[in-house]
Amino acid sequence: MMFFFLALFIIILCIIALFSFPQFSPIPYFPSNMKDKEIILAGLNIKNDQTIFDLGAGDGVVIFEAAYEALKHRLNTRFVALEINPILITLMYIKWLLHPNRKNVKIVWGDMFKIKFKSQMSNVKRITFYLYISPWLIEKVITRIKKQIPHAQYVSYYYPIKSLKKKEVIREGVHTLYLYE
Ligand SMILES: C[S@@+](CC[C@H](N)C(=O)[O-])C[C@H]1O[C@@H](n2cnc3c(N)ncnc32)[C@H](O)[C@@H]1O
């Protein structure tokens, strides 16, 4: 019994550490507000032959809604949910198992500052990145993406991408959505 409580205590400590320490996750987990679902889905502009990445996908709230939308319109859109936190990855796998469009959704446990984006894609006509990440890290990840994929669309929730200011289109919801072609 004592061993059980000790194990439980250690597991809880590990979970708290994974969500609290910047060494494990420099960008804290906040899901996109689903009151903004419609503007987010419209902003992603889901099409055939498109790959949509959610960089730091959290529990997959955006990617799974977008995958429902693609299925509804019989689109072959591919979705890549990249996440660094193993607990959120586990949660996404459970959701993935139950999702009717799971064949088009890929869950990737990895670091957006290390991953090779091209190795995760199959539909390459149109590539879209959904971002809801700390403003001090947005430019760093955009620079990485641009080196690997020069022509991509970006949909940024809450935070503008200053280096793409000239191409900015704004959609207002509970929070602002910034679109860049
Ligand atoms: C603000 S949340 C956004 C979650 C989700 N995109 C959404 O909109 O609901 C940011 C997420 O990025 C993840 N994250 C932080 N650093 C990361 C990294 N280097 N690579 C991949 N994911 C990361 C965090 O664990 C967290 O789940």
UniProtKB/TrEMBL annotation:
**InterPro entries linked:** FAM173A/B (IPR026170), SAM-dependent_MTases_sf (IPR029063)
GO MF, any single term: protein-lysine N-methyltransferase activity
Transferase found in the keyword field:
yes
Leader sequence segment: none
Which BP terms from GO are recorded? methylation
UniProt KW keywords: Methyltransferase, S-adenosyl-L-methionine, Transferase
Which PANTHER family does the record cross-reference, listed alphabetically? METHYLTRANSFERASE DOMAIN-CONTAINING PROTEIN (PTHR13610)
What is this protein called in UniProt? DOT1 domain-containing protein
Q: What is the lineage of its organism?
A: Bacteria, Candidatus Roizmaniibacteriota
